[in-house]
Every structure is written in structure tokens, then in C-alpha cells.
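go over my protein:
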Amino acid sequence: MSQSTRIEFTHPTAAAVAIAGTFNDWRPYATQMVPVGDGRWLKELALLPGTYEYRLVVDGAWIPDPRADATAPNPFGNSIPF
């Protein structure tokens, strides 16, 4: 059974934010975040229990989530495990 995971991100000037990770084969534009105002972006993911890694794609640039407590190295740079 899948569980809901929420990713939140704040960037005051971003025009587009997506999430690329192990849950979507690292496709940089497959999982778009939703702008909710004041530079805040949200995405609810329905995932099966397990460990996943992700990076944010902000206006085409891959970045780690600045709010993350831990990172894991991989071919896409340091990703965030959750």
C-alpha cells in the first residue's frame, strides 16, 4: 500500500520546480511541484514503503534540497534520501 510523502521547497524567484529521483527514474521534468504562493512549492507523492532518493530541478538546474538533513552520493550529485 502506498503512503503519502510531502516535499516542500521555497525559492522566491523560481519559475518551475520539479523533483527527479529513484521513484521516477531520475526524469527531471516528470514530477512537477505546484506553486502555492510566496515562493513556496509543494508536491504530494504516493509511494510504496521503502527508501528513495531525489534532487530538485529548479528552472533546469539540479540542486539538493536545502532543508534535507542527509545526502547520498550518486551519478546525479548528492541526493536526498527519504
Remarks:
- The two ends are 17 Å apart (CA to CA).
- Residues 2 and 48 are 4 Å apart (CA to CA).
